[in-house]
Amino acid sequence: MAAPQKIFYKGTDNDFIIFIEESDSVEKYQKGDTTIPLIDILSIYKVFTNRTGGSEGVLDEASKSELSNEFGTTDIDKVIKTILKDGEKNGAANVQRGGSSTNDSIGAGATGN
């Protein structure tokens, strides 16, 4: 399974990101095939923003007011369609799926002294 990729949209006040599964569906959609269900294109059905700007760093789900201010609507379908149409592919996303500890042998507070 391929890693999710990001579509980056440079907004006026905030930058927005959506995660997609495969580029082929996005390219077909961008060329006018709007019969592809959005759920088949996206990895996760949410719009994210980076509070510090850009496409890297800690992402938060975009608030309704952020969506409304940038896109003139809080309709997630319309926002995603705009980002798909006007955004730019930003490479593979570094998405952590679950956590793994690198050193379970050291307990809390252990200093080794």
Number of strands: 5
CATH fold group of the domain at 5-19 and 29-92: Hypothetical 12.0 Kda Protein In Nam8-gar1 Intergenic Region, Chain: A
CATH class of the domain at 5-19 and 29-92: Alpha Beta
CATH evolutionary superfamily of the domain at 5-19 and 29-92: Ribosome maturation protein SBDS, N-terminal domain
Spatial strand arrangement across the major sheet: 4-3-2-1-5
Q: Unreliable segments (pLDDT under 50, ≥5 consecutive)? A: 95-101
**Gyration radius, in Å:** 18 Å
> How much of the sequence is in beta strands?
15-25%
Can you give the helix content as a percent range? 25-40%
Calculate the mean pLDDT score and round it: 80
Distance between the termini: 45 Å
Order of helices and strands: EEHHEEHHE
Protein name: Restriction of telomere capping protein 3
Pfam families: SBDS_N
Region (Disordered): 91-113
Domain Ribosome maturation protein SDO1/SBDS N-terminal: 5-93
Give an overview of the whole structure:
The protein is α+β, with helices and mostly antiparallel strands and 113 residues long. The protein has a domain at 5-19 and 29-92: Ribosome maturation protein SBDS, N-terminal domain (Hypothetical 12.0 Kda Protein In Nam8-gar1 Intergenic Region, Chain: A). Helices cover 27% and strands 20% of the residues. It has four helices and five strands; from the N terminus they run ββααββααβ. β3 (48-50) and β4 form a beta hairpin.
